[in-house]
Write a structure and sequence with these properties.
The chain is of the alpha+beta class and 117 residues long. It is built from three helices and five strands, in the order E-H-E-E-E-E-H-H. It starts with 15 loop residues before the first strand and ends with a helix.
């Protein structure tokens, strides 16, 4: 989902929320998978800088949360990880660094409306 008012001159939306899925290997915890993912991400030389890391509650379930900057694309992102069986759902909220704080109400509304059934 993208905010059409945030489109650049090329029509690319700059503020968006994306739901990603991943299959968690059976012999790995969600925390280990999360840690491994961000260790690999940091090694990709994208200007990754973690701002915060912790847990939140989404839809009555504990979720992992990572807020970080990617200086290579001038974006701040918030990734919320939820597990349902072997499926991991990642709610990825992204905005230009200068607009990120102004988007928190929208990002929170989307994250808090997410339910696993």
């Amino acid at each position: 989902v993208g905010d059409p008012t945030s489109a650049d001159n090329s029509g690319n939306v700059q503020v968006n929320v994306e739901i990603q899925t991943a299959v968690k290997p059976s012999n790995v915890t969600i925390q280990d998978y999360y840690n491994s993912t961000y260790a690999q991400f940091a090694a990709q030389n994208l200007g990754y800088k973690q701002l915060s890391d912790g847990t939140i509650t989404v839809g009555g379930k504990t979720a992992l949360e990572n807020v970080y900057i990617l200086s290579s694309v001038s974006k701040e992102q918030r990734a919320v990880w939820l597990q349902n069986g072997n499926t991991i759902y990642i709610i990825l909220c992204s905005a230009p660094i200068s607009q990120y704080n102004n988007q928190q109400d929208t990002f929170n509304a989307i994250i808090n409306s997410f339910k696993l059934v």
